[in-house]
Here is the input.
Amino acid sequence: MPGLAVPTWDPETALLIGVILLEAVALYAGYGGLERLFGPYLMDLLVGGESSAQ
Here is the structure.
């Protein structure tokens, strides 16, 4: 039957997919950390301190 064949994985392709996924996780965590460190400062700088005024 067409369409029911199980594809075989090339080890190099699997390694490339794994590296791309690890890079994505590292970038996500890195940018999240930068946002936590510099986000409030940048918001105060760009908005002019309105975010902390109530």
Notes: The chain has a mean pLDDT of 84. The CA atoms of residues 13 and 31 lie 27 Å apart. The first helix runs from residue 11 to 47. Helices lie at 11-47.
